[in-house]
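In this supplementary section we document a worked example of the pipeline. Step one takes a protein sequence of length 628 as its only input; no multiple sequence alignment statistics are reported here. Step two produces a three-dimensional model, which step three serialises into structure tokens for compact storage. The input and output of this example are shown verbatim.
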Amino acid sequence: MKYTWKERFRYYFENTFTSGPFGVIRWLAMMSLVTILLLGLVIVLFGIRADPEAQSGLSFIEGAWQSLMATLDSGTMGGDEGWAFRAVRFIATLVGIFMISILIGIISAAIDAKIENFRKGKSRVLETKHTLILGWSNSIFSIIEQIMVANENLRKPVIVVFADRDKVEMEDALRENLGDLKNTKLVVRSGNPMISAEVQIVNPNGARNIIVLSPDEDEADIQVIKTVMSLTNSSFRKKEAFHIVAEIKDETHLEAAELVGQGEATFLFASDLIARITAQTCRQSGLAVIYTDLLRFEGDEIYFQEEPQLVGKSYKDAVLAYNSSAVMGLNTKRKGFLLNPNNDEPIMAGDQVVAISRDDDTVILDGNGKKGLQDPSAFKQKQTEMKGAERILVLGWNETGFRIVAELNSYVAKGSELVILNETPIDINPTEFANLMLSQVKGEITNRRNLDTIQPETFDHIILMSNRTGNIQSSDARTLVCLLHLRNIGERSNKDLSIVSEMRDLRNREIGIVAKADDFIVGENISSLIISQIAENKDLKTVFDMLFDSDGSEIYLKPINRYWSEGEELNFYDLAERALQYNETAIGYRIMGKKDAVTENFGVKLNPLKDQKIALSVDDYLVVLAKE
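The serialised model returned by step three reads:
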């Protein structure tokens, strides 16, 4: 098919005119040049003179030059003489005004487009050694807060956020929720984390760690796996291994995620961890405070440190060799991680102590010559009373409920009873749990009549579960109403109810303290804390898995009178020594007289200085790592 010259010209004109500002400027330049040349030619052909008294007209070059000057500056025609010359210059001036107006508009539009492009967050990030966060969820704020605290001892730390959202909206949300960024620089870019080519603008190859967030929407795990794949299977990737931390919500996707991760990604199954923590916490008041304290960067944290001076010595020697750090285990080359190992476990070359300390540079042997106030050999172990069958009340239900019940079944004595009060029946098989007798009661947990009927004061432990399908604030409001009813029931029956309550928004925890629940589990906050810790040190995943597992050693709060007699003067060396005699590792204590004091961390003190005296009472607890 043949095209006419007009069609070809129009096609070329449209393509160049829509190719961007430079295409339009090119056309303006051509039109201006043609106009100037035509006007110069008119001056020559008609013999137009700039000065009427001149003997001859202007040359072509001079005429074109005069036309150009009139085009660029309309003020130059004020002194023109002769109507013919004025007419030519007037036409040139009109063309100039028209062309320059268009040019200014084009340049302005180009600048606006460039600014808009910057606003969209599509420019390349040149940072290295940064923390890269891919995706967006409500947990991003608490994760960034923790990383900022961890970054305080770094020089010019950078956090880069890359998500498929509007850049300005993300920046506004971060600014509103984070406040002071301390010494951390925060960079935000917009794009799809699941597309490998788009991820390259945030320099994943230069990042020191990468966090993949699970979005608050359907098929969240699929998006997480695809995002990890965009890193590990990318043609742009570096040869060295990535350090990726990602959250998985459905256990059935864990195997596929591990295959995609290729050993470079650590996947956190948050629902499982939260269920374990809830099950442990409901039976031990204050345990949630201990876990939160241990997981936050603001307090003392878990570190690994090789100490040559301990080679050839035992685990017991290591526990008593530190004054300002609390040893809780070993990382050995032959057996891997050992939490609360046998007292005589030998320390060999290359082994590390696992210790709770203020910072990584404070895990130092500073206990030389220091000891307890009492003779260790004078202490006589006291017989441990085994817990009998327990009664547990579960108020409400969500998807973690099945795991919580399974975890409780592994802790409680045979014959224990678990009652579930929920608005709708739950499809759960009571015969699956050997130690628990399950029953269900239909009813709304905020209805006082339902609560009075079930008699919460007759139960040993109460778990209040949040509704995770509705609005966050509405769900927490429902929880708070139920807590207030329980508080009133406890006061009327003159009984301290043991309550662990789930919350979805950390900010509502402060309101809930008024209701005097023993512990609050904010699942999103706990998973954020764990993700932040593993992002800094991936080996911590193994330690956390061991801590939250019903097999092996876990954290317990044990009555202080097991280790102390009323009237005795002790320091923490004494308590640590006595705990070792039970094959336990002491890491802190809880003063029950301060259990409601927010400023005193609810009475919990982890990693106290061992050489300082402790004022104890019969109601207090020792925080230990123990097998049971």
